[in-house]
């Protein structure tokens, strides 16, 4: 029987009913739904990490990737790129570990208060995870675009015979505005994707939390 149907029967039943729906039965259904939702959050985060790793591996087969690596080594910033990438992956793995921990915790929740507390914590972790991913993406994209713009300008000037060129302030401003618009649009699209995927799961957890509040 669906949860809404159980709740309707539970709300309408009287003390004299012989076939009562107990709060325990409703709790068990909400508990099962919440556990499944958190499990999907964990699974989707793993898939997301896997896709990132696959894209990284396939990038190595393109000459543009190796060219970018060589350029970063020439500018002596490759070590910073490696360090930043390592930090991002470590933080993402920590988030995935927290998702798994929340899944295990919600699976053994013994009462309404424990279940509500775990749901609230899970929703917070997911929001922090999304915020981190969007922020990290924005920073990485901005750094890569600034490096590309600077490198492209210097190469063009050197090709024209200008040694040790410096990009004029006006060009920096113009390039920065374009960069912010492009990155802003990309982050907006990424946020919308997160909203479609994780947002639906968070709404389910929120609904479960509200139903538990009514029972408490």
Descriptive overview:
This protein is 85% helix and 0% strand. It has one domain. Mean pLDDT is 83; it is low at 14-20. It is elongated. 12% of the residues are buried. It has helices at residues 3-12, 23-59, 63-74, 78-107, 112-159, 169-215. By secondary structure, the chain is mainly alpha-helical.
List keywords for this structure.
single chain; 216 residues; mainly alpha; 85% helix; elongated
Report a brief summary of the structure.
With 216 residues, this protein is mostly helical.
List the helices and strands and how they pair.
Elements: H1 3-12, H2 23-59, H3 63-74, H4 78-107, H5 112-159, H6 169-215
Sheet-strand content, in percent, reads under 5%
The number of strands is 0
In DSSP terms (H or I, runs of 4 or more residues), the helix count works out at 6
Spans of at least 5 consecutive residues with low confidence:
14-20
Shape: elongated
Cα gyration radius (Å): 25 Å
Structural class: mainly alpha
Largest sheet composition: none
The helix content, as a percent range, equals over 70%
Number of domains: 1
